[in-house]
């Protein structure tokens, strides 16, 4: 029971990443009708927003030390961070320690701008083109983005640290009555809660605001909304920026769990598209449900007891579930009639 409980927790934080990426994918497809194969690259760019902010906080200059000298009595040179010089050691230490959570602010601004530029500069020209054309052009864009990242940041993973207060493990066993020796990393719990808050925020935004109401109406009947004098295209552009921002902050917060590298976007992209298909094309709630469900199943399948019986099952479980679901429910778990059926 202890092992199963820990694997369920693993699945929840992994499923949170799947659900956030799939949510953005579904949002873009539902509003614009575009199959965006560059969405995984947006997750990757968000993770490198965290890397960039950490490096900015670590920028330093060289000055001659007033106290340190070498054995000949000559003053030594020392590296002094700009943050320490401007704000003092306490503030600079706090900013460095909390650089990953603070990178959410940078990721929102940068990724929303990237999303709007992508939509206005490229995606809008493929609205009425076949889905195959959309896949090819966005997949090519994803490759370009990852090669740019590799050029500036290198090919090796870049570890990022969570704040020290979340560096340990929580005694989750005592919370649910499994004993006092069942521990789970704090940051993974934080990530699950973070993903739940973001998902709730997106759904609340779409459900309870006038902007969201218009977007949902446009998803159902774009032409009719346009006839009412509403610039639905401008709102859909904002939605694309919102989807990019969601993917970006998901990537930024995931960096302490998985050190970012230039290829991580492709790794998450394939799994997230499977999540979207299993949940149902065009269904936001289906994408979230399938994300957490497949994350849990993948984690349970990675247990040694199961792999000893079915070797390699953890590598194929998501695709196996996708095949079973699509054979029994061709539209996915919560798919809408008419979506990609013409």
From TrEMBL:
<keyword id="KW-0029">Amino-acid transport</keyword>
<comment type="similarity">
    <text>Belongs to the binding-protein-dependent transport system permease family. LivHM subfamily.</text>
</comment>
<dbReference type="GO" id="GO:0022857">
    <property type="term" value="F:transmembrane transporter activity"/>
</dbReference>
<feature type="transmembrane region" description="Helical">
    <location>
        <begin position="236"/>
        <end position="257"/>
    </location>
</feature>
<keyword id="KW-0813">Transport</keyword>
<keyword id="KW-1133">Transmembrane helix</keyword>
<dbReference type="Pfam" id="PF02653">
    <property type="entry name" value="BPD_transp_2"/>
</dbReference>
<feature type="transmembrane region" description="Helical">
    <location>
        <begin position="15"/>
        <end position="35"/>
    </location>
</feature>
<feature type="transmembrane region" description="Helical">
    <location>
        <begin position="309"/>
        <end position="329"/>
    </location>
</feature>
<feature type="transmembrane region" description="Helical">
    <location>
        <begin position="135"/>
        <end position="153"/>
    </location>
</feature>
<feature type="transmembrane region" description="Helical">
    <location>
        <begin position="269"/>
        <end position="297"/>
    </location>
</feature>
<feature type="transmembrane region" description="Helical">
    <location>
        <begin position="42"/>
        <end position="62"/>
    </location>
</feature>
<dbReference type="InterPro" id="IPR001851">
    <property type="entry name" value="ABC_transp_permease"/>
</dbReference>
<dbReference type="GO" id="GO:0005886">
    <property type="term" value="C:plasma membrane"/>
</dbReference>
<keyword id="KW-0812">Transmembrane</keyword>
<feature type="transmembrane region" description="Helical">
    <location>
        <begin position="189"/>
        <end position="215"/>
    </location>
</feature>
<keyword id="KW-0472">Membrane</keyword>
<dbReference type="GO" id="GO:0006865">
    <property type="term" value="P:amino acid transport"/>
</dbReference>
<dbReference type="InterPro" id="IPR052157">
    <property type="entry name" value="BCAA_transport_permease"/>
</dbReference>
<keyword id="KW-1003">Cell membrane</keyword>
<protein>
    <submittedName>
        <fullName>Branched-chain amino acid ABC transporter permease</fullName>
    </submittedName>
</protein>
<feature type="transmembrane region" description="Helical">
    <location>
        <begin position="102"/>
        <end position="123"/>
    </location>
</feature>
């Amino acid at each position: 029971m202890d092992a199963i409980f820990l694997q369920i927790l693993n699945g929840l934080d992994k499923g949170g990443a799947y659900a956030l990426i799939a949510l953005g994918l579904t949002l873009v497809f539902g509003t614009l009708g575009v199959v965006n194969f560059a969405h995984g690259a947006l997750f990757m760019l968000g993770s490198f927003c965290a890397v960039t902010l950490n490096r900015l906080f670590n920028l330093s200059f060289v000055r001659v030390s007033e106290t340190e000298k070498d054995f000949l009595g000559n003053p030594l040179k020392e590296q002094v961070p700009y943050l320490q010089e401007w704000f003092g050691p306490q503030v600079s230490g706090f900013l460095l320690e909390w650089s990953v959570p603070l990178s959410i602010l940078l990721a929102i601004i940068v990724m929303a701008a990237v999303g709007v530029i992508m939509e206005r500069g490229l995606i809008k020209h493929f609205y009425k083109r076949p889905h195959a054309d959309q896949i090819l052009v966005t997949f090519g864009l994803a490759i370009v983005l990852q090669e740019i990242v590799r050029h500036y940041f290198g090919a090796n993973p870049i570890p990022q640290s969570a704040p020290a207060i979340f560096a340990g493990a929580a005694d989750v066993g005592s919370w649910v009555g499994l004993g006092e020796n069942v521990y789970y990393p704090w940051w993974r719990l934080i990530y699950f809660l973070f993903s739940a808050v973001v998902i709730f925020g997106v759904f609340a935004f779409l459900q309870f605001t006038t902007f969201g109401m218009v977007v949902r109406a446009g998803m159902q009947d774009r032409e009719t909304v346009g006839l009412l004098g509403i610039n639905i295209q401008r709102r859909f552009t904002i939605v694309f920026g919102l989807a990019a921002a969601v993917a970006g902050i998901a990537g930024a917060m995931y960096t302490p769990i998985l050190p970012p590298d230039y290829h991580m976007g492709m790794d998450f992209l394939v799994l997230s598209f499977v999540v979207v298909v299993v949940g149902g094309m065009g269904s936001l709630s289906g994408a979230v449900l399938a994300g957490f469900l497949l994350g849990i199943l993948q984690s349970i399948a990675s247990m040694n007891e199961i792999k000893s019986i079915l070797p390699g099952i953890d590598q194929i479980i998501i695709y196996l579930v996708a095949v079973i679901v699509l054979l029994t429910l061709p539209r996915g778990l919560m798919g809408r009639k008419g979506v990609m059926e013409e």
